[in-house]
Amino acid sequence: MSEHDTMAETPAGTPASSGPLGYGDRVQLTGPKGRLNTITLVPEGEFHSHRGVIAHADLVGLPDASVVVNSSGEEYLVLRPLLSDFVMSMPRGAAIVYPKDAAQILSLADIFPGARVVEAGVGSGALSLHLLRGIGERGELFSFERRDEFADVARANVAAFSGAAPENWTLSVGDLQDTLPAVCPDGTVDRVVLDMLAPWECVGVAADALKPGGVLICYVATVTQLSRTAEEIRRSGLFTHPQSNETMVRGWHVEGLAVRPDHRMVAHTGFLITARRLAPGTVLPSLKRRASKGDFTDADLASWLPDLAGDATSAEVWTPEVVGDRVKSEKVLRKKVREARSLAQERGVEEPSAEPGA
């Protein structure tokens, strides 16, 4: 089934989060077979499938969660996308943090209204949207991204969902070790969220920014990254003992007497590792445990984590290809930037621009 969305050149209105549907709103159309299509309502726009047409004007003014009929008589359910829906369908410059992990990050890091939160890297802006919702209007989010293309995609995606670039969001481009001290003075940050290839490189600068008792949470994809991050947190002596976990969500098919797990599921996406900042000068008591076969030496660690042995640098050992990241070409990234900006413009949002000096 193929479909396209014919749009006017000058959309009107701005996206709303509730109430009657209007131009600029992002809506989901679910057809008779459960196929979901996400469109933006624009003047003179039409949604086409090989089974018929729905004019955007027919949707404007309807209450959310209404049913409309296309030109051939087929019914479609119309809903505003939830944040999780928007995140899963928005343009991606980099892999996103899935909603199941974003929810865990907000809970485990205790993201609260009014919090000052640091996030690195920003990727496509998926986690940024969840963090902005968690901190509310009184909080502040400081996001850091090394690549301009990813930052451009994130700016456009956040603006498209929010209706404008949030005033309490600062996005800086550059290495966290270099840019964080200039943006956030020492001891002024409540939470630090690291979603990057080598978060252990930023443990020190994160510790400097955090208030005593503040939370560091890292999102990593592989077991080796998890181990390397945990060892660096321990070696720093600046945090409590790290805690690690992963989240798997399995859907269920529930229809009459046919009740069973879904055949498909999103299983492993990443690991979360958390620790809390110790007060300056505090020495963490050693854990008391019996000697076991699990005891290890620095030589054991070096055989498992080569950059700890001093024979190689982190940049040489830990590359996107080694940990299985899919690296998109510059051409694909430029396309994703255009798609994200186009989505923001369809929703009546002004062209998102970089922060001065970012």
UniProtKB/TrEMBL annotation:
Any GO CC annotation of this UniProt entry: tRNA (m1A) methyltransferase complex
Keyword field: Methyltransferase, S-adenosyl-L-methionine, Transferase, tRNA processing
Record's keyword annotation contains Cell membrane: no
GO molecular function: tRNA (adenine(58)-N1)-methyltransferase activity
Region (Disordered), start-end ranges: 1-25
InterPro entries: SAM-dependent_MTases_sf, TRM61_C, tRNA_MeTrfase_Gcd14
Domain tRNA (adenine(58)-N(1))-methyltransferase catalytic subunit TRM61 C-terminal positions: 87-254
GO biological process, one term: tRNA methylation
Pfam families reported for this sequence: GCD14, TrmI-like_N
The protein's name: tRNA (Adenine57-N1/adenine58-N1)-methyltransferase
Organism (species): Leucobacter luti
